[in-house]
Amino acid sequence: MRYTQNGRPFFINHRSKETSWHDPRQDDPLPDGWEMRVHADGRVFYVDHTTKSTQWEDPRKTKVSSGPAIQYSRDYKVKYENFKANLPKPDNPGGKVDIKVKRSGILEDSFNSVMAKSPADLLRRLWITFEGEPGLDYGGVAREWFYALSREMFNPYYGLWEYSAIDNYTLQINPNSGLCNPEHEQFFQFFGRVCAMAVYHGKLVDGFFIRPFYKLILGKKITLEDMAEVDTETYNSLKWIIDNDPEDLCLTFTASEDKFGQLVETPLVTNGENIDVTNFNKAGYVSAYINWKFVDRIASQVKSFKKGFNDVIPLSKLAVFDENELEYLMCGITQIDVEDWKTYTDFKGGYSATHHVVVWFWKAVFSFDNEFRARLLQFVTGTSRVPMNGFRELQGSNGPQKFCIEKWGSPGDFPRAHTCFNRLDLPPYNDYHTLREKLRVAVECTGGFDID
């Protein structure tokens, strides 16, 4: 299939060396109630007389994959299989570890039980019992335990975690957790154990964490770009400092934060309160601020979490994964409802829900398997997970912000993403297959990634 300059498709039969306006794939009859018409610009569209609606997409091909489903690559599946094969083995393969809890006290009961076990015990088959609920645990009860426990473990109400500055569902460690719970380090060790147990036993924890959290687990450096997904206001301020001369701001190598109504100033380096930020040392200031923001303030909590994780799975085993893959490993991928995704999507730059490029985009999304859809969602929004109540609650840098597709660039460009705004810049491609391939490459290689 090729396109004329005005966008009308035509078809080439390479055997007979003939061209035709007729789509040979359309020899099958249309469904009852449908009619095919030709728009003034030559493009074919379809009328559904039953619903009294029109669309560009051929109803005979709607939601049908055009080619084999794309499997999530970057060797994640191979990495995961090798990772599982090299995990430590239980000393008693036929044994089990009993964990008995009350639903009303699941956090405390689980803490006492898990922390009382040796690391070797936690590698054995899990046998979870909820008090007053008879049932044999052949996997379903353990899955329910991880789910219910996650809801309590990561509940900001307890003061150990807090929501990030950018939304009300992505979690980060509360730097003041010690003031909320004197035993906070033991609890973070417990959290680490539970997360590792979930990974080891093929289960998932139910949590949304900021990307720097996964990078800290992996021992990776946090960058300014990571700040963009967590605190847009601070990111914009630091980015301005990098791009301009900050001397007129009269800044010093200190950071200020509100602690229970009191403004506390912390030096970022030794004697930082007496060191002015200049055009020559601003890069060092930004680096020190990021380190304070993501590392120094929560160093003891992260250390405890990693200790707990390492009790069950050696942290060195995670080295094969990047931070995105670690999110998949710990939290999994929710089943993505594409219809809900379509319903809560906005358009800019001349695109609309019925524009042929947008129609091709959704056709491509339907053709991808769920793993690749999650990867696409992560590429555009920064997370592979969808809020509990669906895409209508997707958050951006300034609160609720729908997924957005904007017309941008030329057909030779790759799509690019703006994670702060949940926006995909999608070039006006000339055909579906080019769009699908360009989108696939952009997501796989993150070559079109961009942050405002």
Weakly predicted, low-confidence segments: 62-73, 447-452
Count of helical regions: 15
Beta-strand fraction estimate:
15-25%
What topology, given as strand order, has the largest sheet?
13-16-18-17-19
Write down how many β-strands occur, each being a DSSP E stretch of 2 or more residues.
19
Structural class computed from helices and strand pairing? alpha/beta
The percent of residues in helical segments reads 25-40%
Radius of gyration: 26 Å
Average residue pLDDT: 84
What is the overall shape? globular
Distance between the termini: 37 Å
List keywords for this structure.
alpha/beta, 5-stranded mixed beta sheet, 3-stranded antiparallel beta sheet, 36% helix
What does this structure look like?
With 452 residues, the chain is of the alpha/beta class. The chain has 15 helices and 19 strands. The chain has helices at 76-85, 106-116, 140-153, 177-180, 184-200, 211-218, 224-228, 232-243, 282-294, 299-312, 323-331, 338-343, 356-367, 370-381, 432-445; strands at residues 2-3, 9-13, 18-20, 34-38, 44-48, 53-55, 96-101, 125-130, 161-163, 171-173, 254-259, 262-267, 345-348, 395-396, 399-400, 403-407, 416-418, 423-426, 449-450. The strands form 7 sheets. A 5-stranded mixed beta sheet has the order 13-16-18-17-19. The protein has a 3-stranded antiparallel beta sheet with strand order 1-2-3, with no helix packed on it. A hairpin with a 4-residue loop joins strand 2 (9-13) and strand 3. Helix 6 (211-218) crosses helix 11 (323-331). The radius of gyration is 26 Å and the shape is globular. The model is unreliable at 62-73 and 447-452 (pLDDT under 50).
